[in-house]
Amino acid sequence: MNLRPLKYLLILCTSMISPLLFASETAEQAPGTTAWVNACKDWDDWDKPGPPFKVYGNTYYVGTCGISALLITGEEGHVLIDGGTEAGASVIAENVRALGFRLRDIKVLLHSHEHFDHVAGLAELKKMSGARLFASADAAPVLASGVVSDKDPQANMHDAFPAVEVDAVLNLAEPVVLGDLRLQAYATPGHTYGALSWQWQSCEATSCVNLVYADSLSPVSRDDYRFSDHPEYVAAYRRGLATLSELDCQLVLAPHPSASKMRERLLSQGGLLDQAGCSNYASTVLDRLDARLEKERLSSD
Ligand SMILES: [Zn+2]
């Protein structure tokens, strides 16, 4: 089954949702980033509650201190990317409400990569919101079973998580469209086979920026896994990094906030905006991948 989310959503929007329903839905007052910086540390606990804040325009950080989740709000409903851990789901739900948005107005759930720290909360969030979940072809069976794939570099390292029904497999050639929202997925395998990075545009007054949610891409694995034994996977890994480094991107975020130096940037004068954010992120990962492959080569000599 390879349903087309674009078509589905267009039908959904025109036939079932009255735009009036959302007309009054705006964040009353998005809290500043100071509260988050004060509440959260670098590489903080995955389940630790942190206050939500506005990232840019209609994009809000609603994750915990240690795990990101992003709410992108629209006139005909909202999109939520990532659901945190099982315990993190309630933190995310509370953050969405604290911003003045309603959970039932979340119409689409998306994911970064299919490991429990980012997707275990999706089952609960789906139940609370009634949203439809779209997943990549490789992530879909993992989400639907709650069990990490055998081919995953981190297979057998993670506990199972609550299974969640996937409503459609994403066709990456098309954006996900919900009313005025339009999000483009890019395959960025590395952490997992089904890993996705996302790009969309958010605007404030007259200025619009392209945001990118770049997946965790560090070459992490169980002890006996060798990336060099999987040349096709490494080739796809490199393609994803090349794509990421060339994206039109003025603001990069990552599933682990500290991987994109989010706190550091919030504290800096320039804030989260960074023209070179995506290319720097990709080149840092590429260095780590090359170092990992070199280490594997040396250990096999
Ligand atoms: Zn993670």
Number of strands: 12
Strand order of the largest sheet: 1-2-3-4-5-6-7
**Helix count from the secondary structure assignment:** 10
Strand content: 15-25%
Biggest sheet, in brief?
Answer: 7 strands, mixed
| CATH homologous superfamily classification | Ribonuclease Z/Hydroxyacylglutathione hydrolase-like
Q: Report mean pLDDT, rounded to a whole number.
A: 90
**Regions with little confidence, pLDDT below 50 for 5+ residues:** 1-30
- Taken in chain order, the helices and strands follow as HHHEEEEHEHHEHEEEEEHEHH
Based on the coordinates given, report the CATH architecture.
Answer: 4-Layer Sandwich
Bound small molecules, which ones? zinc ion
Number of individual domains: 1
| Distance linking N and C termini | 45 Å
Helix content: 25-40%
Could you name the CATH topology? Metallo-beta-lactamase, Chain A
Rg over CA atoms? 18 Å
Principal-axes shape call: globular
Class from secondary-structure proportions: alpha/beta
Regarding CATH, which class?
A: Alpha Beta
Question: Could you outline the blueprint of secondary structure elements for this entry?
Answer:
Layout lengths: L4 H12 L3 H4 L10 H6 L13 E4 L2 E3 L8 E3 L5 E4 L6 H11 L7 E5 L5 H4 L2 H8 L2 E4 L3 H7 L22 E2 L6 E3 L2 E7 L8 E9 L2 E7 L17 H16 L4 E3 L8 H6 L9 H24 L1
The structure holds zinc ion.
